[in-house]
């Protein structure tokens, strides 16, 4: 391995894991894989040999997720059972391998489960996603399928139906769907469940809502998959979600103007309006349209009181007749186009 790091010629090879004698029909030594003689056509003779992953194979696969730089976690003894683990740090992911071991339970028959809590700190993201893999008699293991297999001699044969459970349970399987965690003050607590003489591998990454391989905090289109992260105008908004990727001053339609307030001066017969700019402007420059409608639930025929105003204030000189009312809405716009009037309201273009 050391030589391969400095000379790529030594990195090209294949490895075969084996133990002698071979483990035919579960009668050989404990090994990485087991061999089952299979009779496909029902004539009582061997037609092929099925290779079944043993628990050791999945242990090796778990270890293959770790890098060569490992930090040991403090080990503890609880009721005679030793708990420990390692951390495998990388730039964009942290992996934790937790184990427990009862030296007196040589057949791993103790059914009790434990919860190990990792108190993570220094997490550099706002949200994290955790994936888990468990490995014990009940998880990612063909143990129970082997127990149910009829006992036959080393040269005996099995039907495809008899080994179906073996072949269906020998893979390393993720323990449930990924889970998202909110990171508070740079940390969060991670609970991991494991059985006696079992292990659990936890992989902690920044959340990636669009599953394009870029964490939300680094993704220039967090909600649209864009693995290439192409950004032609350099405005930190990718081509996939930029309304005009040749214009660095505009990238999306603006959000809603908020906190609209009005005051009416009866003497001056003037209504003054003010509002706050959208929290998501979608561009560097915003303009505003102010619309007025005598139908409070329908702005499709509204009048434009002001078009393309460049501040967050407007006024109107119309005074409603006694017993009547008018409503006002403000719409922001930028180089991508006009934003929303809020809800499902629609109104005319201004001017």
What does this protein structure show overall?
This protein is mainly beta and 351 residues long. Among the domains are: 68 residues, no CATH class; 81 residues, Immunoglobulin-like (Sandwich), CATH 2.60.40. It is built from four helices and 17 strands. Strands 3-4-5-10-7-8 form a six-stranded antiparallel β-sheet. A hairpin with a 2-residue loop joins strand 3 and strand 4. The longest helix has 10 residues. It starts with a helix and ends in a 13-residue tail after the last strand.
Give a quick rundown of the structure.
This protein is 8% helix and 34% strand.
Features:
mainly beta; Immunoglobulin-like; 4 helices; elongated; four-stranded antiparallel β-sheet; six-stranded antiparallel β-sheet; 351 residues
Set down the secondary structure blueprint:
Elements: H1 2-6, E1 33-38, E2 48-53, H2 55-64, E3 71-78, E4 81-89, E5 93-101, E6 113-120, E7 127-135, H3 143-148, H4 164-169, E8 179-182, E9 188-195, E10 199-206, E11 258-265, E12 270-276, E13 287-293, E14 303-309, E15 313-316, E16 327-334, E17 337-338
| C-alpha-based Rg, rounded | 33 Å
**CATH secondary-structure class of the domain at 258-338:** Mainly Beta
* Helix/sheet category: mainly beta
Strand content: 25-35%
Global outline = elongated
Q: CATH homologous superfamily of the domain at 258-338?
A: Immunoglobulins
Major sheet: order of its strands?
A: 3-4-5-10-7-8
Average of the residue pLDDT scores: 91
Spans of at least 5 consecutive residues with low confidence: none
């Amino acid at each position: 391995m050391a030589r391969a790091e400095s000379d790529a010629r030594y990195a090209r090879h294949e490895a075969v894991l084996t133990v002698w004698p071979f483990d035919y029909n579960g009668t050989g030594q404990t090994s990485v894989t087991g061999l089952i003689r299979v009779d496909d056509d029902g004539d009582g003779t061997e037609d092929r040999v099925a290779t079944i992953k043993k628990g050791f194979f999945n242990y090796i696969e778990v270890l293959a997720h770790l890098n060569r730089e490992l930090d040991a976690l403090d080990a503890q003894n609880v009721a005679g059972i030793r708990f420990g683990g390692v951390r495998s740090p990388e730039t964009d992911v942290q992996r934790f391998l937790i184990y427990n071991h009862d030296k007196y339970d040589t057949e791993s028959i103790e059914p009790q489960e434990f919860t190990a809590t990792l108190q993570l700190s220094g997490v550099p993201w706002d949200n994290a996603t955790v994936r888990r893999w468990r490995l014990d008699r009940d998880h990612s293991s063909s143990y129970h399928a082997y127990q149910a297999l009829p006992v036959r001699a080393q040269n005996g044969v099995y039907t495809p139906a008899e080994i179906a459970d073996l072949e269906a349970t020998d893979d390393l399987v993720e323990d449930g769907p990924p889970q998202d965690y909110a990171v508070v003050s740079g940390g969060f607590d991670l609970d991991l469940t494991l059985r006696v003489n079992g292990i659990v591998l936890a992989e902690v990454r920044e959340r990636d809502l669009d599953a394009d391989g870029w964490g939300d905090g680094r993704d220039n289109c967090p909600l649209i998959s864009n693995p290439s992260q192409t950004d032609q105008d350099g405005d930190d908004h990718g081509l996939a979600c930029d309304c005009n990727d040749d214009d660095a001053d505009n990238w999306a339609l603006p959000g809603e103007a908020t906190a609209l307030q009005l005051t009416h001066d009866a003497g001056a017969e003037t209504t003054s309006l003010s509002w706050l700019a959208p929290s998501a402007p979608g561009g560097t420059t915003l303009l505003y349209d102010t619309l007025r409608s005598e139908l409070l639930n329908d702005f499709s025929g509204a009048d434009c009181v002001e078009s393309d105003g460049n501040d967050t204030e407007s006024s109107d000189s119309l005074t409603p007749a006694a017993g009547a009312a008018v409503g006002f809405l403000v719409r922001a716009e930028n180089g991508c186009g006009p934003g929303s009037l809020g809800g499902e309201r629609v109104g005319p273009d201004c001017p």
